[in-house]
Automatic annotation (TrEMBL):
This is Pseudouridine synthase. GO terms for cellular component: cytosol. It comes from the Bacteria. Transmembrane segments: none annotated. Keywords: Isomerase, RNA-binding. Residues 2-60 form the RNA-binding S4 domain. The lineage of its organism: Bacteria, Bacillati, Bacillota, Bacilli, Bacillales.
Length: 240
């Protein structure tokens, strides 16, 4: 027997947190009856579970890495009919979804899965799974400004967690710098807002690493399935 929200998440319908919202909204049925209690336990063998009257199937978990190009939405659908990340997975039968998001104009490493529990592990700030970005910014950040990024900045009334930051290069001709920054949070437009806060707006942004994972030889729009050892290491990072 497993908690209802976990069964829904493991089926790839949505994350566990959003599954809890679906239950509370009365959009989930067990054996044909609406269930609103979050602690409800069900048998994946004997009980039938429906979300919005659609029967869910328990899928085997799958894990993918995508080199997300710019101008692609980190979602499974878009009401403006723009290209979304799952468009690159049309041959994948499982109902996968992106883990977190990359901004529309940000490229780089994005993970997708149908494993809601794994997705929650990767996204929760307390688990400190670091994502590393390469940012091209206006001007040259001073040592003091780099230290401010490292310590954490107050953005919209909330202080960011300490970051790992390294100034890689500066080009006088274009009045710009390349900065590497690693964070384990995932607030909306966080990296861009952090650089704006120190007076160096981002011109270009790419996520190059996700914990120990790198893009390797992937090109924009290309993908690959994660190896079991890679999934294992990500889980170990999240629980240490």
């Amino acid at each position: 027997m497993e908690r209802l929200q976990k069964v829904i998440a493991n089926a790839g319908v949505t994350s566990r947190r959003k599954a809890e919202n679906l239950i509370e909204e009365g959009r989930v049925k067990v054996n044909g009856e609406v269930v609103r209690e979050l602690g409800t336990k069900v048998s994946t063998r004997k009980d039938t579970v429906q979300v919005d009257d659609i029967l869910i199937d328990k899928e085997e978990p799958v894990y993918y890495m995508l080199y997300k190009p710019k101008q692609v939405i980190s979602a499974v659908s878009d009401d403006k009919d723009r290209k979304v990340v799952t468009d690159y997975f049309e041959e994948v039968k499982e109902r996968i979804f992106p883990i977190g998001r990359l901004d529309y104009d940000t490229s780089g490493l994005l993970l997708l899965t149908n494993d809601g529990e794994f997705a929650n592990m990767m996204m929760h700030p307390k688990n400190k799974v670091y994502k590393t970005y390469i940012a091209k910014v206006e001007g040259k950040p001073t040592k003091e400004e780099i230290e401010a990024l490292k310590r954490g900045l107050e953005i919209e009334g909330i202080k960011t967690a300490p970051a790992k930051v390294r100034l890689k290069s500066t080009t006088k001709q274009t009045n710009s710098s390349i900065v590497e920054i690693s964070i384990h949070e995932g607030r909306n437009h966080q990296v861009r807002k952090m650089f704006e806060a120190i007076g160096h707006p981002v011109k270009k942004l790419k996520r190059e690493k996700y914990d120990q994972l790198t893009l390797g030889n992937l090109k924009p729009g290309e993908k690959r399935e994660l190896k079991p050892i890679e999934v294992k290491k990500l889980k170990e990072t999240a629980v240490t």
